[in-house]
Write a structure and sequence with these properties.
Layout (H helix, E strand, L loop, with lengths): L3 E10 L5 E5 L5 E6 L11 E11 L2 E7 L2 H11 L6 H10 L2 H10 L2 H4 L7 H5 L1
Parallel strand pairs: 3-5
Antiparallel strand pairs: 1-2, 1-4, 2-3, 4-5
Protein name: Holliday junction branch migration protein RuvA
InterPro entries: DNA_helicase_Holl-junc_RuvA_I (IPR013849), NA-bd_OB-fold (IPR012340), RuvA (IPR000085), RuvA_2-like (IPR010994)
Pfam families: HHH_5, RuvA_N
């Protein structure tokens, strides 16, 4: 499992499907998909990212986070039936971790379903 990457920023793409391309000191480049709240670094600057490596039948994808807490919460969301990596990233891009916990505690599936790509049934789970 790849849980942390450090290296030089080659490219930043900011937005809904944002990512950072990172070149490690070993000469390997990784594309890491990030939330809308990710703190980007300038091109050619050094960066360290907590990551979650997700292997699916048709893809192997890295998701990146500013903190261990964000990464661990992302992985907790993946344990919910029907929530995949794209839905989990969407939820974390829409709300802070504390707000998500509050929404879940209140059982407000309507508010949670406002995350792009997450329907009311997924929010209820």
């Amino acid at each position: 499992m790849i849980s942390y990457i450090s290296g030089k920023v080659l490219k930043n793409v900011i937005g809904k499907n944002g990512y950072v391309d990172v070149l490690t000191n070993a000469g390997i480049g990784y594309r890491v998909f990030v939330t809308l709240h990710f703190t980007y670094s300038d091109i050619n600057s050094e960066i360290s990212i907590y990551t979650s490596f997700q292997v699916r039948e048709d893809s192997q994808t890295l998701y990146g986070f500013n903190t261990q807490q964000e990464r661990d919460f992302f992985e907790e969301l993946l344990n919910v039936s029907g929530i995949g990596p794209k839905s989990a990233i969407s939820i974390l891009s829409t709300y802070s971790i504390d707000k998500i916990k509050e929404i879940v505690a209140q059982g407000d599936s309507k508010l949670l379903s406002k995350a792009p790509g997450l329907g009311i049934k997924g929010a209820q789970k």
